Structure formats: structure tokens, C-alpha cells
């Protein structure tokens, strides 16, 4: 019995079992693809998110093949050249076309005045992160990305971060150990209930892996958390794409609700908006709110956005922080994503403000008249520095970095001025020392003229933001060099001597540097340290 015999037997077996074998192979491939689907998700979702482009490619191939098969060589070559030119047009202008179509879909309401905010976010991201890190004492756990967290009505916004496995081995064997919550005053609470599917976990236990298996043809946004007492739920909004000829644009289609025990709810946009568990909470993806702000540059078309630049706004890159706009703000109608936009170019003015309802995703726009633009967030840093010239501000020079005081994260606060009906935009900056886990001074910069009001206590900050008169809250000139000499900010909960920064605010390296500087001054016969510098104990 030679090879022909066995080959014939195989053919006979295949003829008799072809259908069952095909079904079995199909099942194996389907199960394998379902299990490994997240590996291919990034590539395939890229095709799906730009399906109009690939439909054009497919139609072009079909047309050219049809013409060649019928012997129409010259028309086929002409069609090939035309189709290639069309595809190059899409490659060059496709992103801009998406921005134009996204702007057309906004249906934004126009606001005549700046709406007032209710409440503040007292802590900047860096300070909240530092406060939480100072209390993270479990070697197997690290803190993930911090997200803003709504508290009770009237309370300042806080932060929440996942407690993820730390280390190469732990990511395979350890679960996400709940979350760390930083309230509006900087107090840290650890909620330790582990998540069956969580952030920072590898392969099949990672929450993204599991959610992609649940719904493949969506783009997942960054997870965040809803905290009610000791109950914690992870929320992961997802995006789909719709045709807005000739391109596709993303839209919020729904949200996954992930429970610690591994239960996953897949709620549509309408279902989660109506869900009483998340009443007036943040639901709308912040990345869509930012994309909406970016699309405003294309409100008058691509040519204007790229060439003539008439009424083209841009989102500023905020100095001294990793926390970029949009910022989540509390308002009387629920949380909103706020984005302040500057004119294209070197200007530091704010002349357009985009408000995105963080619960429903509705848009509102306020545009300032040309002759009444307001100070932008980055410009506010200079006014605070000028208003407090005796603070030892961190500065970069030829000899390296000096100082240990920095102002962080200009957050918008809109208060109704006492005795008037005017809503005024202030930029609220937190002044702190380099390593401090608290806020030493809160400076409110009037966006109309740059006047700076500095407040030290948490209660004063909340009262000022509510539009109340605060005793001793006297604005000081911040637009010119100089200003009334001031003492450097004391550490939270402590009183430093007038004219000094408390040594407790300084790191060992900073104390050594200051001592060396003092020794150099003595050797050179200079006077005592200038008022406002820290002195050795």
C-alpha cells in the first residue's frame, strides 16, 4: 500500500466528513478569535473608525478589476490614477474633514454671559496625588491615574485613583485592590475591596481585555469611578462611529459599569443617563469634550483654519501641571466640562469658553466681544508671581533651579460679584512648596484686570467662590512688578514667622542649598537673607 492508497482514503474521509470538520474548525477559530480578540482590537478598530475611507478603497479596487477584466485597459488606468488621487486627498484632508463634521454635529447653545459655578476643586492634581502617595504603604500596590470625583452637593471636588498591582509578577497574580479617594480638603480614604477585572492587571484579568470581549467594535475611553460611601463602581464609557459624509465621527454610545465582583453591565447612553445611581454624575467622556473644543477651530472651514485664521481658537497648554483642559467643574445644573480657548497664535487671552454637560453631553458656548477678552489661564501665573514678589518662586537659571514655591493649575471659578449682577471669571491657583502635600495659599486672579486675592484657609476659599464678602480679602495689584511685600506661605495648619517660609516646608536638599547660599553671602560680606526666604532653624 503506497502513498496513493492513503491519499485516497483521506479524500474519502473528507468527502464523508467535510461538513462536520468545517463546523468544528469554524468553532475552534471563533473561540480562539474571541479569546484573543483584544490582541487585534487596536488594528481592526482603526479600520472600523475610518470605514468610509476603506469603502472607497474597496470600491476603487472593484472598479479597476472590472474594467481590466472587460479589456478596458485605458479607462482602467485612468480610474486607477483618479482613485489614487482621491485617496491621497483623504489622507491629507481626512482629519480636518472629521473636525468639520464633528463641529457640525455639536448643536451648541449660545450663552450671553458666563454661567456661575457652584463649588470649587480646592486641590490641584499634583497636591492630591502627593497626599495620596504619602499614605500608600503597601509594596504590592501602586496608585494609577487620578480622576476628578464629585462629592456631596456644595462640597469641593475630590479625586479617586485605582490601587493597581505593583511589579512585573504582581500584575499576573494580584488584583486591583480597590481605590484611593482624596476629598476636597486633602484627606485620604482607602477603599480596599478588590476588583475581579481591574486596571493594571495583565492578560485576561485586565478590565480592557474583558470589555473588548464583551463588545468588540467600540473604542474604550479611560476608566473612572463612582463612589457612594463604601460602594465603588468602575465606569468605562465607549465610543462608536457614524457616517457623516464623507468621513466618520465618534459618538458616545454607552457605558460599561464594572462591579468589584466581576459583574459587568452594558448600559446604553440613554439608560445610564436615566439611571438613578448616577444622577447628576459625570458620564460624558472628557475626550469628546476636548475634541469638541478642538473642532471649534474649523467652524469656518478648513481653509480658514489652516490659512486665514479668522476666529480660530485653540486650547492652551497649561504650565506647571500635567492636568490639561477640559476641567470638570460643579455647577447648579450638575458637573460640566469647561474649556477656555485662546485666539490662535501667541495671545494669552480667553475669548471663547466651551461648556459641555458632563452628564448628558450637551454643549454651550460663550464668546467674548472682541474688545472684552479676558486673561487666559497661563497669564495668571505671572500675576500671582508679581503680587507676591518675596516668595521664593521656583525659577530656572544658568546655575540651575532655585526656589521652592510654585503656583499650580489655574482652575476657573465664576462668582457673582457682591452688590452687582455680574458673573466674573477668576483663575484659582494653588500656591504650595515643592514637596508639600497641602495648599499654602489660594490665589484668585480676576480675569478682567489681573487683580490677585490671596486666601489662606479652606473656609475662606469656599466663601469667596460662593460670592460672599470675605474679611481681609483685599485684591492686590498683580500686573506690575512689585506689590506689597508679603510673607512666604506657611505650611498647611502651621504658622511661620512673618517674612519666613517654615523650614518644615523644605526638603533636606533645599535646606542644604539654602545653608550653602547663606554661607556664601557671609563669605562675600553680604547682608542677611532677603525677607521672605527660609532661614535655617
Salient structural properties:
537 residues; alpha+beta; 3 domains; 6-stranded mixed beta sheet; 5-stranded antiparallel beta sheet; 12 helices; 24 strands; disordered C terminus
Describe the structure.
- The chain has 537 residues and is an alpha+beta fold.
- The chain has three domains: 3-104, no CATH class; 135-278, no CATH class; 370-523, no CATH class.
- It is 33% helix and 24% strand.
- It has helices at 3-49, 51-69, 73-104, 125-133, 170-173, 207-214, 269-274, 286-295, 302-308, 377-387, 458-465, 508-523, and strands at 109-111, 141-143, 147-149, 158-165, 179-182, 188-191, 219-220, 224-228, 231-244, 247-258, 264-268, 313-314, 327-329, 336-343, 349-350, 352-357, 363-367, 374-375, 395-397, 400-402, 405-416, 423-433, 441-446, 452-455.
- Strands 1, 12, 13, 14, 16 and 17 form a six-stranded mixed sheet that branches. Strands 2, 3, 4, 5 and 6 form a five-stranded antiparallel sheet that branches. Strands 7, 8, 9, 10 and 11 form a five-stranded antiparallel sheet that branches.
- Strand 13 (327-329) and strand 14 (336-343) form a beta hairpin.
- The longest helix has 47 residues, at 3-49.
- The relative contact order is 0.09.
- The model is unreliable at 480-505 and 525-537 (pLDDT under 50).
Radius of gyration: 29 Å
**Poorly predicted residue ranges:** 480-505, 525-537
Silhouette? globular
Can you give the helix content as a percent range? Answer: 25-40%
Biggest sheet architecture: 6 strands, mixed
Computed structural class: alpha+beta
Strand content is 15-25%
Kindly state the number of beta strands.
24
Count of helical regions: 12
Mean pLDDT: 84
Q: Oligomeric form of this entry?
A: single chain
- Determine the N-to-C terminus distance: 100 Å
> How many domains would you count in the coordinates?
3
Amino acid at each position: 500500500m503506497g502513498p496513493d492508497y492513503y491519499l485516497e482514503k483521506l479524500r474519502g474521509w473528507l468527502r464523508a466528513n467535510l461538513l462536520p470538520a468545517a463546523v468544528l474548525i469554524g468553532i475552534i477559530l471563533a473561540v480562539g478569535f474571541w479569546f484573543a480578540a483584544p490582541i487585534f482590537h487596536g488594528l481592526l478598530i482603526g479600520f472600523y473608525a475610518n470605514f468610509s475611507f476603506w469603502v472607497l478603497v474597496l470600491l476603487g479596487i472593484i472598479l479597476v478589476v472590472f474594467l481590466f477584466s472587460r479589456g478596458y485597459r485605458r479607462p482602467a488606468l485612468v480610474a486607477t490614477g483618479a482613485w489614487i488621487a482621491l485617496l491621497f486627498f483623504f489622507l491629507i484632508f481626512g482629519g480636518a474633514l472629521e473636525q468639520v463634521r464633528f463641529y457640525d454635529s455639536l448643536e451648541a447653545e449660545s450663552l450671553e454671559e458666563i454661567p456661575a459655578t457652584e463649588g470649587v476643586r480646592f486641590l490641584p492634581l499634583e497636591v492630591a496625588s502627593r497626599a495620596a502617595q504619602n499614605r500608600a504603604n503597601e509594596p504590592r500596590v501602586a496608585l494609577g491615574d487620578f480622576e476628578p470625583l464629585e462629592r456631596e452637593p456644595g462640597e469641593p471636588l475630590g479625586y479617586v485613583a485605582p490601587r493597581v498591582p505593583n511589579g512585573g509578577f504582581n500584575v499576573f497574580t494580584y488584583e486591583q485592590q480597590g481605590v484611593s479617594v482624596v476629598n476636597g480638603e486633602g484627606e485620604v480614604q482607602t477603599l480596599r475591596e478588590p476588583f475581579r477585572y481591574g486596571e493594571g492587571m495583565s492578560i485576561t484579568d485586565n478590565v480592557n481585555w474583558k470589555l473588548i470581549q464583551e463588545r468588540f467594535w467600540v473604542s474604550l475611553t479611560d476608566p473612572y469611578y463612582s463612589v457612594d460611601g463604601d460602594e465603588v463602581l468602575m465606569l468605562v464609557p465607549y465610543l462608536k462611529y457614524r457616517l457623516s459624509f464623507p468621513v466618520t465621527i465618534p459618538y458616545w454610545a454607552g457605558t460599561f459599569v464594572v462591579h468589584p465582583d466581576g459583574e459587568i453591565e452594558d448600559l446604553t447612553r440613554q439608560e445610564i443617563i436615566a439611571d438613578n445611581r448616577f444622577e447628576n454624575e459625570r458620564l460624558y467622556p472628557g475626550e469628546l469634550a476636548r475634541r469638541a473644543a478642538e473642532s471649534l477651530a474649523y467652524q469656518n472651514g478648513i481653509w480658514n483654519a489652516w490659512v486665514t485664521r479668522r476666529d480660530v481658537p485653540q486650547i492652551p497648554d497649561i504650565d506647571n501641571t500635567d492636568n490639561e483642559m477640559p476641567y470638570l467643574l460643579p455647577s447648579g445644573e450638575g458637573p460640566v466640562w469647561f474649556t477656555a480657548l485662546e485666539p490662535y497664535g501667541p495671545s494669552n487671552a480667553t475669548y471663547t469658553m466651551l461648556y459641555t454637560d458632563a452628564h448628558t453631553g450637551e454643549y454651550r458656548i460663550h464668546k467674548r466681544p472682541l474688545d472684552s477678552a479676558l486673561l487666559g489661564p497661563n497669564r495668571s501665573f505671572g500675576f500671582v508671581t508679581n503680587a507676591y514678589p518675596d516668595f521664593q518662586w521656583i525659577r530656572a537659571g544658568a546655575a540651575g533651579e532655585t526656589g521652592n514655591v510654585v503656583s499650580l493649575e489655574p482652575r476657573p471659578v465664576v462668582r457673582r460679584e457682591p452688590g452687582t449682577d455680574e458673573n466674573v471669571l477668576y483663575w484659582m491657583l494653588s500656591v504650595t512648596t515643592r514637596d508639600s502635600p497641602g495648599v499654602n495659599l489660594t490665589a484668585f486672579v480676576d480675569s478682567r484686570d489681573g487683580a490677585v486675592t490671596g486666601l489662606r484657609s479652606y473656609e475662606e476659599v469656599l466663601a469667596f467662590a460662593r460670592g460672599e464678602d470675605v474679611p481681609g480679602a483685599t485684591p492686590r495689584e498683580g500686573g506690575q512688578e512689585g506689590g506689597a511685600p508679603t510673607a512666604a506661605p506657611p505650611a498647611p495648619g502651621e504658622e511661620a514667622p512673618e517674612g519666613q517660609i517654615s523650614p518644615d516646608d523644605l526638603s533636606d536638599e533645599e535646606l542644604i542649598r539654602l545653608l550653602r547660599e547663606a554661607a556664601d553671602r557671609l563669605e562675600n560680606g553680604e547682608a542677611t537673607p532677603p525677607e521672605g526666604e527660609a532661614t535655617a532653624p
